Model the fold of this input.
Amino acid sequence: MRALDPRLLRYARATRTFLIASVALGSLGAFLIVAQAWLLADVVAGAFVHDESLARLRTAIVALLAVVLARAILAWAAELASARASARAKSQLRGALTARIPELCAEPSRAWRTGELTVLATRGIDALDGYFSLYLPQLVLAAIVPVVAIASILSADWISAAIVAFTIPLIPLFMALVGATTRERVDRQLRTLERLAGHFLDVVAGLPTLKVFGRAKAQASQIRAIAERYRQAALSTLRVTFLSSLILELVATIAVALVAVAIGLRLMGGHLSLRPALFALVLAPEAYLPLRKLGANYHASAEGLAAADQAFAILEAPGPVFDGSRGSRGGLPARARKAGPGDVGGGVFDGSRGGLPARARKAVPDMTHAGLTVEGLSVTYPGRSEPALEGVSLAVQPGETIALVGPSGAGKSTLIGVLLGLVQPDAGSIRIGDVELADLDQAAWRAQLAW
Done:
């Protein structure tokens, strides 16, 4: 798993600003940690070794309290920034996803199950909170704090710095080993939840038919079985989480103990003074802390990252192109297509404008006076011999209400897809007033529609 998926930077641009803020806050926090360790060592050594009075230590104590307060304010600012970045990034990613779904689902050959998409767009993307509030800030700190801490310890005690430098890579090693298992289990948990949601939605939609044929109870047992599999997957993930946290804590504790033993032996032998010894001893745990928290918080972010991977799979699926710079204003395929009504030789498509023909576009007529006219509309999906629509004609006057009625597969959704501009007809014409639908600015046209 990549620590930072570049696709997240592309589809959720709030991530970029948050990363810059996290690096700035993390760098400042690292130097505050070093200052706190040095001031603490200075106060303790001055009081117990040099017998300095409280008046002489007042400046150092006040500075120490100021550093502690600054660290608290910094932690609050980081938490606030992560909460806002998480909300914005989720909104941007969800907007991109919901803009993409109608384009892909317009053709049955590319349709996803509604229940799975619902879980992905709600619970799945909401799980990114853990990634932004817990994992990503610790990822930045894990890259900055250990380096600053080792360099600072090196200035006071090179032996302690060497011990920290040689033992600290063990934590990322164990994180990588445990993380692979965790990601696999979280993926399985999310897939089970999506399967449960999709199956439950199908059962609710078909409940009258199931009741007629006496199959309602059988479906209830299937839902119960899927729910039990989800419970087992969730408990399995939690088991790995607790065990991995134990391993990381154990490795970090042993490493800090090695530093403490080495310092203690040299203190007793008179080879090291108290002030640098305390500085190294206080700072050593801080070098391991971001990595320990990173490993513990990885599990909180794994579900959100798994859902983000699925969202990226939808956003990057073959077909119509999503333009992240315009959010949900894109829509039509930016690839070559068959010539439709009003197209000149199929037209040249401009991907930056949602796939609309690069020729001049006309404004949408006033919908309070312009009617909708469909004449001889026919649509046949690729790979199918039977047309989804054939010779459909209708006229809708302003203020009129029309109901599309027909059995499943009659072409109701296909007709709506054509009106939305998501499905290209093989024959026929669609006019809004006296203007062909293909000639309209599609973003302005869709702004008049609700689906």
